[in-house]
Amino acid sequence: MKLKPTLWIAALLLAGTGPALADGDAAHGKIVFGRCAVCHSLDAGKNLVGPSLKGVAGRKSGTVAGYQYSKGMAAAGLTWDDATLDKFLAAPSATVPGTKMLVGLPNPADRADVIAYLKSVN
């Protein structure tokens, strides 16, 4: 059976994103998170340029007390699960127009690892 080109591309994209989320390496994610730590703390209540990421897994977007969110993030209504975190970390501005976060993680394995790390310190 031959797949149409658009279906073939979609199948490749989906095949490349599913398992990585489940198989993230938290130890490597801690190293990659070093890039994120410039703007984000893992201490509850300690907001920096970005909000604290303590407890981010499962949290609603735009809800960290004491952090001044962009209008886009305040209105986004997202829940930070694996898929949403992956999508946002890949392309923050495309996922939440108007977000203050401009730096993404283009590497799917790095994203999976950071998500695993964030969940491990949740």
Features:
122 residues; mainly alpha; Cytochrome Bc1 Complex, Chain D, domain 2; 50% helix; 0% strand
Helices and strands, in N-to-C order?
HHHHHH
Task: Give average pLDDT, whole number.
Answer: 87
Describe the main β-sheet briefly: none
Helix content: 40-55%
The helix tally amounts to: 6
Low-confidence stretches: 1-21
> In terms of structural class, how would the helical and strand content be classed?
mainly alpha
The CATH topology label is Cytochrome Bc1 Complex, Chain D, domain 2
Number of strands: 0
Please report which band the strand proportion falls in: under 5%, 5-15%, 15-25%, 25-35%, 35-45% or over 45%. Answer: under 5%
Radius of gyration, rounded?
A: 15 Å
The level 1 CATH classification is Mainly Alpha
CATH 4th-level superfamily: Cytochrome c-like domain
Task: For the record, give the distance between the C-alpha atoms at the N and C termini, rounded to a whole number.
Answer: 45 Å
Shape: globular
What can you tell me about this protein's structure?
The chain is mainly α and about 120 residues long. The protein has a single domain, classed as Cytochrome c-like domain (Cytochrome Bc1 Complex, Chain D, domain 2). It contains six helices and no strands. The chain has helices at about 5-20, 25-35, 70-75, 80-90, 90-95, 110-120. Helix 1 packs parallel to helix 6 (about 110-120), helix 2 (about 25-35) crosses helix 6 and helix 4 (about 80-90) crosses helix 6. It is globular. It starts with a helix and ends with a helix. The model is unreliable at about 1-20 (pLDDT under 50).
